[in-house]
Amino acid sequence: MNELAMMHRQPLDEPVAAAARRSLFNVLGNAIGAAHADAVTISVNYATATGQSGDRVVLGRSETLSPHAAALTCGIAVHYDDFDDTHLETVIHPGAVGLAALIAAPKHTPLDVAIRAFGLGIEAQLRIGSAISPSHYHRGWHITGTCGVFGAAVTTGLLHGHDADTLTRALSFAAPRAVGVREGFGTMTKPFHPGRAAVNGIRAAHRASTDTDTDTPREPLVGDGLFGDVYADELDINRITGNIGTHFELLHNAFKPYPCGIVSHPGIYAATLLHPRINDDIETVRIISHPLVVDLTGNPQPTDGLEARFSTIHGVCAGLIDGEVALAQYANDRVSAPDLIALRAKTTLIVDEAIARDQSRIEVTLKNGETLVEEVLHAPGSIDRPLTDDELYTKVDTLITPVLNGHTEPLLALLTDPKGHTLETLWQLTTGGDR
Amino acid sequence: MTATTPIATVFAQLDDSQPFAQATIRAYSQLAWFVATHRAAKDTTSNHQNQAERYGFEPAENNPNGYAPHALAAMHAATAVANANDPNQNTQITASIVAAALVVSSTSDHLVSDVANAIAHGHDVASRIVATLTNHTAYNITHTACVLGAVTAATMLSTNDATVRANAYGIASTQAARLNNVTSDSPEQIAADATDTAVEAALLAAHGFTGATSGIDGRRGVLPIIAETAPLAQLHETPKTMHGVSFDGADTIDETLNAATFYTTHLI
Fold it and tell me: Which pTM value belongs to this model?
């Protein structure tokens, strides 16, 4: 595993550095957009009530907290709307943990150093996740939390100046602290996973710096009873240690155009394309999708916004009725609106083994007997159809503007040219905005 | 209540007004044992600084105790295990449950009898977890029992609302799995981390944070993932015995009350 830890020497050349900046820009928007979500406010209130004060920021707000409390809150905020980044092969949302680790870092950290550590922390998560996929997720682990702990350890370790041996020790201390089972989906516990994974990874890196007495295995992941053996049916070690420096999973980190489980996206996109063609009452809707869609987002009649994020039927119906699917379509009152409840009841989710993950076919039968069909081969935000820089800017601006109006453009400019700036400059642009 | 009811719903409705006498008496003993281990530690402040540094628990600048409740409870649990004569699974579980109960109870008015009752119920839950997961060695079963036993005691003392308690189980259970074959994990660390998780989960739930009621035994809950073939029905059975621990301190209720006074005077 020392090969992975050798990343401490790894420069981030373009376009990898650009991918890290895009990932960071995206999750900063997510955190600010969810700054006043109930789960975020609860986390802040708990930290404040228990005296966890300090100088670390809460994005989109004016409170400051201790490093761990701020990291937990940040992870919750980024992932709260399920609108963050996704590595499609593993379904890891790696940026939440990465940003949470940066939040806990000293403010005087040079911004370009922080972006590099953020990018390499993501790379570590994605490599480990790729090595244990798909069996790890299929067993029921929430891979964002279980692999996130390694990402936070790497990001924090790099910011501490860890060498390869110390980074390896950090990964060893992180391994038993993986968190998250999928049963928590649809509750605040899902976004809690990256927040807590970040805290655990930060602690692991800290311990690697200070505890030189404890015996740690030279190999933290691979071996009898270790993470790769216990948490997955199969482990492909080459996905972790192969082509370090020449292959970057970070380049495959995608950005969601819709705030919900990514397997719903092809169907939602198809529904928005159908919306302008609907000229009569809808009799029935058939959604033909990859089998994973039923497994991950098969809730037919969600009762609130968090549950709706795991309902492809809800997303498709919202797209058919509203013509767009954004945060407003996942607000509790929209989810429980009579028109959506009625249309969801007329909608069937059908599995087709021949359909790819990023593909979907929607068939809408109208009262007048007409059947409308739309088939999407690659949803926006997929590997074959990534969000463009302009689309990403629009997404992030939509999230930031209601909280910090006018901050999106200077934020992008700062991330594009970070030399000479510190994290403090970044936090100045991304905090405040209390309601 | 059927066997298909999520176990967290059952746990959340444990009747804390009807303690089971023998278990509660044992809980008094465990309280006394716990305080005795802290007396043995002598300099608690210095001890906590060392533990915070070692285990990565950060100070809480604006908390009069110096640490947030979850971190304080974690360090108390670690202290108890470190100063036990013979650290074992029972010691770790007891340390987690008692530390969680004492720290949470100190944030509001509770009788010592309430604390003892919560400890007894914590052991009730922990013993069912151990019975269900016995023979599954890839994961640290002690950690799982510590988390779920300690969250039982903590949430029982932090709220009377069964829905909030069920949420606490959801938040805690998602963190209840831990690798077993890790040489860097000491018994103190296991108890500390489990207590940290449990107290934070209970208090976050009390502030309104939500978790899955099915987080323990649902299809993708922590126990079925840890052990596909675990006899989950055992969770619903009344355990035949409670965990006991040996201790060096007081062994009467009067002495335990004195010990609890010592705790509130000197340790928090």
Answer: 0.91
